[in-house]
Amino acid sequence: MNINENYMRFAFREAEKAYEEKETPIGCVIVFENKVIAKSHNQIETLKDPTAHAEILAITSASAYLNSKVLKGCSMYVTLEPCTMCAGAIVLSKIDNLFFGAFDPKSGACGSVINITNNKSLNHKVKVSGGILDTECGNILKSFFKGKRNN
Question: pLDDT, tens digit, for every residue of 51-95?
């Protein structure tokens, strides 16, 4: 297993926590100097907050850890391609690298539908790599939504 798969497994464990809490199962970790400094999962239902996506919560935690609004030198691992809100936050926080699991053909903002993380008009570009453990990351989402449809 390579290093990116290893960190994605940490993010996947966060997605599993979200699943158990009946939240959309998306998990995220942020790594700085080969150490996980922040981890989170979706908490939209729990917090009654539409902005409580795994990525936003992890960015807040990493910023607190580093005592900085700038997350240079950091890499984010998230189980689903970020949406427009999260992609914008990734750019604004100046994260260097984004690794994601499943592609999101309906609302992915890192290349699938639009590409905020590498928009030439913005002042920061993020190195993006998608499809890491995509089968596992996609399957937990499919299982979650299948369960919701059957209820």
Answer: 999 999 999 999 999 999 999 999 999 999 999 999 999 999 999
74 touches 99 (CB < 8 A): no
The alpha carbon dihedral of 3, 63, 22, 80 has a sign of negative
H/E stretch holding 38 reads strand 35-41
Q: pLDDT tens, 2-49?
A: 999 999 999 999 999 999 999 999 999 999 999 999 999 999 999 999
Against a cut of 0.85, is the pTM above it?
Answer: yes
Task: Copy the structure tokens of residue 13.
Answer: 């464990």
HEC profile of 5-30: HHHHHHHHHHHHHHHHCCCCCCEEEE
The SS3 call for residue 127 is: strand
Largest CA distance in the chain: 45
- Three-state DSSP at 133 gives coil
Q: Which residues are catalytic?
A: 55
- Cβ-in-10-Å burial (0-12, 13-18, 19+) of 124 comes to middle
Instruction: Output DSSP code: residue 71.
Output: -
- Burial label for 151, CB within 10 Å (0-12, 13-18, 19+), is exposed
